[in-house]
C-alpha cells in the first residue's frame, strides 16, 4: 500500500540518477522491501547495505558503491524508526547497516542483523549510547561511530547556546517579533558578561576541549574542568595562552582540573556538559547539584539529554529567574519536560549541535567507510585524524575502517 502511494507520488520504479561527483554512474530506484519504501543505489552490488535514513552528500555513497555494495536507503515517513520497521528493512539477507542514534540497537536488532548474515554496523553519530556494543560483539559484528568531524561544530553550538543564554538573545528576539520594543532602556534584557569569568567543563574530551578553547580564547575566561582523566594538552594550551596575554599586558587566564564536579558547579559562571552518557553520567546534574551552582550561572548541555534531570532543571529555572540554560538535547527526546517550554530563561534547540553541512557530510562518509571497510576486510584506522577519509580524492582515501569501537574485543587488525 505504502509503496503504491509512494509510486503514485514519486513515480516509483522510474530510474533517477544521484549526484555523484566522480563520474561514476549509479542509478537509484524507488522500490519497497517488506512494504517499506526504499531508494536503491547500485542495484547489482553483491553486498546489501541498509541505511535507515537519507544521508547528506554523495561521498558516503561512493565509498559503499566502490566496495561493491547495493545500498538501500529507507524512505519511511516515520522520523524515528521502531524495531519492527528496522527488522523488516534488514529482512532475510543484509550485510551491513548504517543506523541512527534514535534507534535502539540492542539484542533484538543485532540478533536480526546476525540472522540475516550481517557483518557490520555503524552509528551515524560519535556517541553510541543507543548501541549495546556487547550485543554486537557477542555476534562478532563490528560497530562503527564517527568521531573527529563533530568536534568543532558541536563546540560552536555549545558556544552559541552559552552566548544566547547569557545575553538573553532568544527572549529579546521574541520581544522584537511581538512588536513590543518601544525604545532603548537601561534595564532592557540585561544579561551576564562572560569576559574574565570562569567557564566550567564537565568532560574535557574532544568536544569539551574545543569548547573550552573557544571560551578561553574568545572571552578570556578562566577554565575549571572536571574529568576522571586529566587533559594535559588543554592545560598546556591555556597556560601558554595565559603567558601570551601577560606578555601583551593583559590579565592571564588560568586552567585547573577540579578534584570534584561539585567544585566546578560551585565556582563556575558557565558550566557546559561534554561527557558521554553512561550509567555514571545519567542525571549527573540533579536538584542537589543545581542548588550548588551560582544563582545567575549558565548551564549548557550539548552532550546527551539524560545527563540532566530535566524535571529538576525546570523547577530550578522557575525558582531562579537569573539562572539560565542552553539545551540542545533532552531527557526524553523529542519530548521536553513539562514546563520547560514556558521558561524564558531556557534556550532550547532541537539536537542540532552537529548540524553543519561539512560535519553531516563527514559523518555520512565515516559511517559508510566503516561499513565498506569492514565488508571489504580492511583493517581498522588507528589515528585520531580522520580527514583523509573525508577530504581529498576518493582514490587516495585509506583502505581502512575509520572508527570501530569494539575493534579490540573482536581482535580486528589495526592499520600498521
Ligand atoms: N548534541 C550533539 O549533537 C552531540 C554531537 C556530538 C557529540 N555529542 C555528545 O558529546 C559526547 C562527547 O563527545 P566527545 O567526542 O568529546 O567524546 P570524548 O570521548 O572525547 O569525551 C568525553 C569525555 O567525557 C569524560 N567523562 C566520562 N565520564 C565522565 C564523568 N562522570 N564526569 C566527567 N567527565 C566524564 C571522558 O573522560 C572524556 O574525556 C558524546 O559522547 C556524545 O554523546 C553530542
TrEMBL record:
Instruction: Specify whether Oxidoreductase is a keyword of the entry.
Output: yes
A Pfam family this protein belongs to?
2-Hacid_dh_C
Write out the entry's keywords from A to Z: Oxidoreductase
Q: Where is the signal peptide?
A: none
Q: Does the keyword Oxidoreductase apply?
A: yes
- Residue ranges of domain D-isomer specific 2-hydroxyacid dehydrogenase NAD-binding in the record: 160-353
Q: In the record, what terms sit under GO molecular function?
A: glyoxylate reductase (NADPH) activity; hydroxypyruvate reductase (NADH) activity; NAD binding
- GO terms under cellular component: cytosol
Q: Which residues form the D-isomer specific 2-hydroxyacid dehydrogenase catalytic domain?
A: 49-380
Show the InterPro entries listed in the entry: D-isomer_2-hydroxyacid_DH (IPR050223), D-isomer_2_OHA_DH_cat_dom (IPR006139), D-isomer_DH_CS1 (IPR029752), D-isomer_DH_NAD-bd (IPR006140), NAD(P)-bd_dom_sf (IPR036291)
Q: What's the family?
A: Belongs to the D-isomer specific 2-hydroxyacid dehydrogenase family.
State what protein this is by name.
Glycerate dehydrogenase
What species is this protein from? Astrephomene gubernaculifera
